[in-house]
Amino acid sequence: MYGLQQFFIFFLSHPLQLASLLLFLFLSAKFLLLSKKNSNSNSPPSPWKLPILGNLHQLGTHPHRALRSLSLTHGPLFLLRLGSAPTLVASSPESAKQIMKTHDLAFSNRPYSAISNRLLYNYKDLSQTPYSPYWRQMRAICVTRLLSARRVASFRHIREQEAAFLVAAIEEGASTPLDEFGAVLGTVNVADFIPWLGWVNRFNGLDRRVEKVFAEFDEFLDRVVEDHRLTTGEKSEEEEDIVDVLLQIQRETSNSAVDRDTIKAIVLDMFAAGSDTTYTALEWTMTEILRHPRVMEKLQQEIRVILGDERNVNEEVIERMDYLKAVIKESFRLHPPIPLLVPRESTQDVKVQGYDVPEKTRVIVNAWAIGRDPKRWGDGRRGVQAGAVPEQQGRFQGAGF
């Protein structure tokens, strides 16, 4: 009894500690009630959760590895609670197919991210914007006007020029502002999972960092768009790039769907996604080649036979290098540039592999785990092997990169 009195006396004389305790108890009770409300005997298996944090503490510094470890215990399809966000994790080809193909419309939305929303002009891009009529319109523009086979072929001289710039940049050891853009875009924002803790970003510097990166890229993209606008009509179709095409679409479009911010957001999509993933793929492929001298020797032999004394490497030459393409694909399997695919969100209640998945559930597809599944790849986790790619040249049908 005396101890209980001391307990109450302490907290009554320390109002800040009392407020903290009451807040913790309130949030814990709310979490337990929410968990009970959302509990479903037909839900996917789920690991034990902490109050407030849920399973956030289990992600660690390498979430794709941590999620794979959890899949070995709970199966290829399991449910986490990241803060207040229920999150379904798919770690097998079958579960990924259910989400991305069988029920693609039910999982067509993207979860809200404050950082992505700011950096991508209030979701005026294509990769992160939620599913909507605007998204369908932008996707149609990108597929038919920017990324059609004819248009991609017309950009060939630009790709070859950029490849030469890339080699020069590697020789100089240069870094780009895209490094900081990618780092900020990939930062775990606590406000996305525990919204009431969003005020923390004002003190940890994240808000300032996001605004600084946005201002730098916005100024750069403004100059790019303006330079292209001033040279409108002076280029042949073969000389036009993505910005020229988008400006032409803007002039042709009667409504205001394609405005200046839309152009900047889509250019940023293409620019950032294409550059960062390319650097990552190059780095891992070169690392694997250095780790496996036999693979390097076979690659060198193929390049010498096909190139001869020619120093200029173009797309026709690369098309004939079957062993090189196989090595790159094997590197993609082992080290996907985006280990966890861009998150999705369910727009309705849906059943996946027999489990009930409610509306507003976030979805993560672990591409890194799928590429290292021992049931399909055996011991293919060690790295690129000389025997993992075809010894003889030939043509193969499939969805290539």
From TrEMBL:
List the Pfam families hit by this protein, alphabetically.
p450 (PF00067)
User: Per the UniProt record, which residue ranges are transmembrane?
Assistant: 6-27
Protein's UniProt name: Uncharacterized protein
Which domain of life does the protein's organism represent? Eukaryota
Q: Which Gene3D superfamilies match?
A: Cytochrome P450
Molecular function in Gene Ontology: heme binding; iron ion binding; monooxygenase activity; oxidoreductase activity, acting on paired donors, with incorporation or reduction of molecular oxygen
Family that this chain belongs to:
Belongs to the cytochrome P450 family.
Record the organism: Linum tenue
Q: Which InterPro entries match?
A: Cyt_P450 (IPR001128), Cyt_P450_E_grp-I (IPR002401), Cyt_P450_sf (IPR036396)
